Amino acid sequence: MTMHKEVGAAYGIKTVAIVKSLLENNDQIAAANGRRLAAAGVLAVNVIAGPGAGKTSLIIKTLEVLRAHARVGVIEGDIAGSIDTERVLAAGAADAVQINTGGSCHLEAAMVGRALERLELGQLDIVFVENVGNLVCPTHWALGEQMKLCLLSAAEGHDKPIKYPEIFAVSDVIVLNKVDLIELVDFEREQFYESVRALNPHAPIFELSCRSGQGVVDFGCWILDCLSKVRDE
Amino acid sequence: MTMHKEVGAAYGIKTVAIVKSLLENNDQIAAANGRRLAAAGVLAVNVIAGPGAGKTSLIIKTLEVLRAHARVGVIEGDIAGSIDTERVLAAGAADAVQINTGGSCHLEAAMVGRALERLELGQLDIVFVENVGNLVCPTHWALGEQMKLCLLSAAEGHDKPIKYPEIFAVSDVIVLNKVDLIELVDFEREQFYESVRALNPHAPIFELSCRSGQGVVDFGCWILDCLSKVRDE
Fold this sequence. Notes:
2 copies of one chain form a homodimer.
Chain A: E1 5-8, H1 13-39, E2 43-48, H2 55-66, E3 72-78, H3 83-90, E4 95-100, H4 109-118, E5 126-130, E6 147-153, H5 160-163, H6 165-170, E7 173-177, H7 189-199, E8 205-207, H8 216-232
Parallel strand pairs in A: 2-5, 2-6, 3-4, 3-5, 6-7, 7-8
């Protein structure tokens, strides 16, 4: 057996400088989005997950809990299509805007800025921003949100925090979805919590199943608490 | 209910030009990798999937089928860690190299070029290149492979080809993993096949479960057929 060998990445200085300048420009627009949301007293949540973790389902199920208590808008980021926008409106979102990134692997603040112009923020309490399905790229692109939510499906495996550490480290809340499958997929809860806690000691972690409904009310109530805090500031 | 509204992405001309030049540079290095693989008569497979679809498990299960018939090397692409390299070596890979991308969301041809230098290609028949878990970014970055494999887990849902069309369109083979969960996750087979076929009429589609082993031998035999074709060329 050969010993394992490692090859690091080497990027040119020019490439790094270009990316840095793009990110700085993005941060400025994100700050402006943040000021607009704060002025309207709206809580914005950036929902980040890989493909098929259940981002839209989480938004829909949470909407069902929240809609008697808060007016919820949704910004749907997808590479293509507008299925999700139709689904969230049918589930009772007060307003929704579709962003098609045209191939891009993450949302950027400028896209969200244009979407915010299309929403009547004065009529909303909470805005969920569903990012493109990707556990890597959205990490670095601030959108102006008050809260980053990292969503993982139990079917993806307990080792994901080790493989995609950055998103788990920077998130304000972590949601483990599809816990109805947890016994079927060799998901080791203890290892999952241990590796999340090593990266992020304080973010609340919710376990739920959008399919069975288990845990969704607890999560919805916590979001309402967060809204009160935003309004009290 | 508000009608759904759509916001397109707008990138600056300068940004597009920079990305195009990076991709062209990558294509040249990929072509050199491809020539090196062809000279050694090695079949290289670029394994692309979102987080937790089962890329490493597919490689390990296929290794178990192939190892009596072919010498298999693995290049493991991860943002961090070397767990997967240790796993594939323990499962019988003849050689393995870890690439840590240091945050990058996809492998690039230059990284794979450096990894190929560390493998003894003359001693190998097949090289699996496990890309970073991402259904978007790896699509555009050629590595020098003869074959792009797109892997989806049934738990991710039948609608993924509609949401991530490019990778399904450009792949040479599509593998649906975790079919042991298919009845538990509302996966609509007919809609899945319909949307894949609309994007990619001819790529073979394999259904399998790395957990139960179902379908893995068929897939391994097909890979051996592909190797014979590479050798006959």
